[in-house]
Write a structure and sequence with these properties.
Shape: globular
Helix content: 25-40%
Number of helices: 9
Order of helices and strands: EHEHEHEHHHEHEHHEEE
Number of strands: 9
Radius of gyration: 19 Å
CATH topology of the largest domain: Rossmann fold
Strand content: 15-25%
CATH class of the largest domain: Alpha Beta
Number of domains: 2
Distance between the termini: 40 Å
Length: about 290
Amino acid sequence: MQIITSIKEMQDFSNRVRREAKTIVLVPTMGFLHLGHLSLMEEGRRRGDLLVISIFVNPTQFGAGEDYEDYPRDTERDQQLAEEKGVEVIFAPTAAEMYPSTYQTYVDVEKVTKNLCGISRPTHFRGVTTVVVKLFNIVKPHVAIFGEKDFQQLVTIRQMVSDLNLDIEIVGMPICREEDGLAMSSRNKYLNPDERGAALSLSRSLKFASELFKKGERKAEEIIREVKRIIEAEKLVQIDYVKICDTTTLRDIEHIDQEAVLALAVNIGKARLIDNIVLNQDNEDTDLPR
């Protein structure tokens, strides 16, 4: 496994691989890897000849007062886990390498970024789309793999790839959960035992919403009310949003007559956690615990 920190070196490496007609798969990460990240790497191994992961805590997607400086990092552990999963290259640039002092260009996807996390984090997705385009131009992948836990991020990246005619296949992978149902996240490290127990209200509420939907409830307002009732019973949890949206436009919907995403974000202590479930007539079950 190679560790590359230079943009030019990464581009030169990818150009050589492409000349050999090999398929490059990229898994972008901010490091502090967990089983969710590793599942993306396993899928990446199946989809191409060369597996690259990026490890870069991207400063432009953090707003004022957010946890950029405190975001968990463990470089040695990340490298070991990546090598065990068959990663050939880790691209791990510095912030100065990605954003030199003269930097002034950003990518802004307009409509799908305005709802959900975009309400309380108005600059977040501009940072996400900018760094992802940069990674695409540096690593030059044929395929890029993202987790569906960051549902709005995945929709935004797909929109950007379509709008900018980028010749990259975007693959979304299901949420990975702990045995008790908590969606895997690097920020789970922030939770103390009481906060972690309270965080289980997220998956419980989504499971209850799925059961309501399977029983025939189609009014978004009714499902949202029940989800909030379960979460608000936990005094340590503060809701940012609970919404039901169209899975393509991410606009709020009142009646679920097509595939919809039930998405939520909460603050628990220092951690901001997100989770979601797709409500679909064809879904007989979910990955949530009983």
